Structure formats: C-alpha cells, structure tokens
Amino acid sequence: MSRGKESMPDTRRPYPRLVTVKFTSRLRFDLGRDQEHVRADSIAELLAELEHRHGDSFRHWSEHYKIFVNGSSIATLHGSNTKLADGDEVVFLLPVAGG
Amino acid sequence: MKVKGGYFWKALFVDLSAGQAFGLPFDEEFAKKYIGGRGFNIKFLWDNLRRHKFKINPFGPENVICMSPGPLGGTYTVAAGKTSFATISPATGIYGDSSMGGVFGPEFRQTGHDALILSGRAPELSYLLIDGAKVRIVPFPELKGKSALEAEGMIRQQTGDQDLKIAVIGPAGENRVVFACVNSDWSRNAGRVGIGAVLGSKNLKAIAVRGACDLPVAEVGQLMEITNAGFARLKSHKLFSFWQEQGLMSVVDYVNGIGVMPTYNFKDAHFDRADQINGFVMEERYKIGDTACFCCPMSCGNACLVKEGKYSGAVCEGPEYETACMFGSNLGIDNFAFIVRANQLCDELGIDTISTANLIGVMIEAVTSDLVPVEEVDGLALEWGDEEGVITLMHKIANREGVGDTLAGGSKAVIARWPRLKPIISQVKGLEQSAYDARTAVSMALAYATSDIGAHHTRAWTLAHEMEQGLNWSPEKKVDLVMYHQTVRPLFDMLGVCRLPWIELGFPEDYYEQAYQAVTGVKYSLQDLLAKSALLYDLTRLIGVKLGISRQDDQPPDRTFDQPVLSGPQKGKVVRREDFEELLELYYRKRGWDQNGIPPQEREREFSEPLVSE
Amino acid sequence: MKLTVIPERCSGCKICELVCAFHHYQVNNPKKASLRVMVLYPHPVVRLPVVCQQCKDPKCASNCPVNCIHYQDGLVTIDQDECVTCHNCVLSCPFGAIFTHDDFDVPFKCDLCQGDPQCVKACPKQAIQYVPKHIIGQTQRMRHVLNYANMRQVEYVEAGEKKVLRYVQAPIPNRGNPQTGD
Predict the structure, then answer these.
(1) Given a contact as 3+ CB pairs under 8 Å, which chains touch C?
(2) pTM of structure
(3) Which helix (H) or strand (E) holds B535?
C-alpha cells in the first residue's frame, strides 16, 4: 500500500529526513493506506506535506489526531516543532481509546 | 435540601436460607451520603462485615451480594443502563465489584427497589423472581449445568413471561470458578471478581425481574431537555459514527499503535498481526448488527457472526477490545473467527474473558518454557496460537476438570500450586490484569496497584492520558491523575451510568451534575459528588485493610518491573521500581493514609452508623 | 404518511420508548410507551420496534365488541369512554402493537403524536421513520434491482475522494430456465 521511495516528489531542501508515517484506525481507512514515506525535518513540515498529498481527507481529522514519534507523543516532545531524524516512525492515532 | 426523586427509598433484602424477602427502608441522609449503585453496595457490605466481625468466607452463607443500579439508572439519562454488583470476592478475598450494562438494571429499578441484597444459601438450585412488589424464590433444579441462554429460555418458559429480564450464571458459576460472571441480555456481563461464583455458592442460578413502575424523577421536563442536548452533543462529535461502527474494537489499532497491547502473556506489548483482529476486520467480515444498552445512542455492542470456516455459526454480542486482545494477541492468535467463538463460549460457560485468557496465557508460557511439565496440564502440549488447546482448557476450567480445577481457583491457586509461576502471572491482589500494558506509563502501574478490586482498569485508566501528554510530568501530577480517575470513574458506577461517553467521546462531566439534579431535585456540584466518591475509596480501602491488605499488596504485576517490552514502539521499556515506590509513597500521602497504606482509625467513624440496627 | 421501522438499524436502546412515554404521560417509564423494542438473540439476532401500522381495515376494530375503535385519516384510535376494557383488541392485533399497563384501565396505542412522531426524532440510528406512503418500498425495490443479475462495481478516485461506480456486465450470463430453475 505504501508509496515507494522513488515516487517522492519533495525536493525543497537538499537533504530532508526520510521518515515512515503510519496511519491507524479511521485515518487509515480514509486515506486508503496504512503507511507511507515522507521527507520532512519537523512535524510541522510533515503535516504540511501530508495535507498537500491528501487534502481534505487528511484535514478532516486534524483537530483530533494524536501524533507519536518513536512511541512518544509530540505533546511530550516539542509539539509541531519536534525535529525528525532519518528513519523515525511517526504514528497518527485517533483518540478513541478504550478503558 | 429535600430529595424529590431518584429513589424508591427501599432496598430489597433476600435471605435465601430462610426463604424470606423484605424491604429495607433507608432515609434521605443515607441516600445523600452514598448516592446509590456502588455507594450503596459498599455500605451494605461494610455493615455485613461488621456484623460478622470481619470474618467472612466468600462462599459462606454469611457473604452477601449487593446489586444496585443507581439513582440515574433507568431514567432518560445518557447511557443509563449500568448496574453494579459487589461482594467479598472469592478471587481476592477482599472487596470486589463489577458492573454490567444492558437493560437488566433499568428493569429492576421499575420493580420499585433501589438495591438488592442477597444473603444466605438456598437449599436447592433456585432462581429469584421479582415481579414488581412480588418476590419469590423458585426452586428449579433442572437449571443445573445449563448455559446462561438456555437457563434464560427455561425460566421464560416456566413463568410464561417473555418480557422478563434475567441475570444468570453459567455452569462455571455453579462450580464456583472464582472468575465466574453474571450474564444478562445475551452478552452483557458483570465479569470480574467472581460475582457469579458467589451466586453459585448461594444456589441461585438467576435473578429474573419484571417491573412497570414510573421512576421517580423530580423534574422530568428538565431531564428531557438536558439529555436531548447531551445526545445532540454526542452526535455532533466527529468520531461518533465511527464509534457506532466499531465501538471498543477501534481500540485495537490505538493500543497497538502506541505499543501497549499485551502480547504473549504480557511479555510483549506489540502484536505484529494486530491488523487481523482489529475493528476493520470485525466490521467488514463479522459484524451483523449494532447493539446498545438502555438509553444509549453510542451502540458500541457489535453483534458478530462467523459465516464460514471452522467456527462457522459462532455468534456473540461483541467481542470488545479486552476480549479481542486477551484471546488474540495475548495468546498469539490472529484469527478473529476464533475470538468470536471464544467469546461465545465464555458467555455460555459463564466465565470472565479477561481472567480466563490471562490464565490460559500463563499456562501456555509455562508449558512452552518448560516451567510446568506437560503431564501436569493433562498432557496438553500447549503452544502459542493453539486454538484447540485454549478451547479445551476453557471447558476444563468451567467444569473444574484436571488442571482446570487449579486454574478455576484463579491466580492465587495457580501460584499456590506452582510458586515458580509467580513472576509470569500478571495479577494484583489475586485479580488478573486486564488488557493494557503498564510498562510505559508508570501511572498505569500505580492505577493497577492501587485499584480497590485488583489489577483492573475500571478504577483508573490513565494510560492514554499519560502517554499522550504526561510522560515527563512530575510524579505529583501523575498521582493526581490516578486519584482523579479513581474518584470520577466510581462516580459513574454510583450514579448508574456508563463512563464510555465521557472517556471516549469527551462528554462533559458536569452533565451528570445536572442530570442528578433533574432526577433527585438536589443541587450538588460536581465537586460535591466527587467528594462523596472519594470518601468511598477510603471505605473500600478500610475493608481491604481489615481483611489483610497492606502496602506489600499494592504492587503492580512482576512483569511491570522485570520484563522489558520485546518489540514495537515501546521496545525496552520497563518501570523502575524506585519510580513506582516514589509514586506510591506520594499517593498514600495525598490520600491521607500512612506509610503502609492504612487509612487513619477515625475514618471508620464516618461509616459506623449501620442502616439497620440489630 | 406511514411510520416504518428498519430492524437492521435498531440497536435496542429503548430511547424511543422513553420519549414516547414522556410525550404522552410525562413520566419516565418505558412500559407506558405505545411501541416496544423487541430484542431476540442469539438465533435469530433481531431487534425490532413493534409499532401500530394504522391498518385501514384494522383487526382490532373488527374484533371490538362495542365498536369503539375507529379508523380515520390514517389513524386508528380507541375511544376511551366507550371501551369496556375486554382487551380483545390487544389479542387480535397481528403485530401486538396495542399495549396495556396496570396503571391504565384502557389499552393504549400509537397516535402518531399528532403527525409529529417523537420516536422518529429521538432514534439515534434512524431505525424508525415517518415517510410518505409512496416512499415505502423504494429501498426494497432499489436493493432488488441492484442485486439483480450480475452487478459489478469499480472503485475510482475523483478529486482525492474514493467513489464507486456500479454497472451490469453485458451480455448478461445465462439466467437459466425460469420454469425449471436450471
């Protein structure tokens, strides 16, 4: 389901980081894929790129999803300023949570 | 302030030994202090314990089972279908409670009672028939060994009343399996702590109710107004329709996504085949309908049917997340059809899905890592993903055959027989851990350790909150979070409503303050109500302490400290013992308990006034 | 207009019963509702709100010994003053849509809330609907047509949105002999 590395259109910077983005739950259903690779240096850049790629089906949930980078919520890191490194795994979750 | 509604002002006391039933009146002061539901139950239990000088055998006739739906139960309140059961648990030996949804509680309320207290032991297998004000204990030995649904059908046939709502135990309850549950309305279970086993020890197979009274509601118009607004608010939530589609099954993706989904007997916290057992699989291949509890628009129950293959014809209401995880990833199984079958079998046999799958997971690990020789598990060469073996064990547990006899005694009995298994059993105070891993979020470890019934998430489920926002919070803030959960979540059980609208769709807590006022006419702020709930936490602790609980029992399962997560986003995570002890210390201080977790003597006086003096 | 139910959607939550009883009697008592959600399990799994069909030739009326049940303008009504409370109507309704309660002498039934049924508004699953008569059956007809023959579908994406296009494969494969079924 994932898009290959070679189809990466982003060339805004010389060496943006390559991260793996995973979609879960309703988001995965709406976007029709469970993961893709994106070049981005920070969460803010990543969000901009994903909005660019998926438009409304991504924006629709924007106020709801929780973002985890390598198992840590970005709220406990630096929010949308959180820096990304090569190989980072970013997970998008919807907070229908259990309990 | 005068209480104008919400109560019928009497609890129904049934002495099964003597075959007598009478109404136990209570007054306004009692109602205001204990609110109802869990509150009433705890107080009745406490009075009974004092009467017996704190010497109670959970299976003895002196133990009581209390049941109460709460003042909002059965009213036009968002998700008002919850009923709380409480007793001295045979699994833990201390206070235990469990609640069920469905329509049983609201129907019971319409018989004109606020609570039910069952004491003694019927001379032969019977069921209790509460038809409005008429109460009868009906001997019916033919119910022996019948599944919950069969028994329901037989009782309906015998009475000739199709509209009866029936709470019933399966064969496991009769056999006193310490995690036997009470089933009602097809698949709504008060599953934990072995309420069903205590009912079984009282020779009571079922409680059948039919009622038609108007519920006392002080301001009906106002209640309609605020609840309609509440419904509108719920429906406007973006995730509402998604919730209707998948209910708690959507949790699989979330929990596995953040890496806290128990896998291979809690050894791991990430299941690589979770997408075989998640909500989408359920929705696309198995779901045949939505089911809901009384007065709830969220309809999180998913009726599931297996349409092809080995388990073809298996049908159940559910499974929900706990079951899917415990019978799925925790046993290394990625076959959703099996999970549906296992859930159905649990309902038929009347056993708790969490405890059953937890203990079976322990046995699989014990056999595969040679901790227990195969001969001691009746020659079953158990393996991860061994569906046949799991089903065989379930039958053995419910019928107490062979190794099932040990497992039926819960984790305490398993540890007693094989002390070397203690490090691999995930339990607190004898109650098996539910399906959330606690190694990443230390507040969740504290929540399990300090829950008044044992390792269950019902009292505090702080996992998501801490992982989403608070991993680097101060210990104080984490303790506050646990204590807030332990105060607000029991409040739902006291009022008789479900907590899911609140925790899942962000439904505001102050709605309940308004609903309570509309129903009873008493204006309490949310803070007032929370204070009453907090008081009860001291009382359940006092019960625990009197029955031998102290600091050494307030420990999370061993694996929380000793077994780092093997894979997934939280790989390598483990709780450091000193971090936990720091939190526990702080927790005691904030509760006003001493170093050993004992509440001060004078707190007892708060509860000394018994409802009836003898 | 007709009150219809879609059992596949019903979740059995009883909100309709609660609002019905409240609207007519201002009490919190689902047992005083003029409809009843029936829940059956596990074989078969059915949840179905039973509600008066407002029959034009009502069995309840023809079996009423004192002729106190009347059909007028799409509504079947029991005349409270004339009723002798024999409950023949309750027994003769083929749907069981006439109800009784110990607090009331006279059986009661759905009155469509003066043309604004509250249950329809309250149902969180849109399982009860109040629709013009010519709408009834449309869904069934459409479903029948869609199931007919060899319906195929193709998924495609338009402006970032997933869409489905349905079509019938031509030529239609051999449908067999309608008389023998071969």
Answers:
(1) A, B
(2) 0.90
(3) helix B526-546
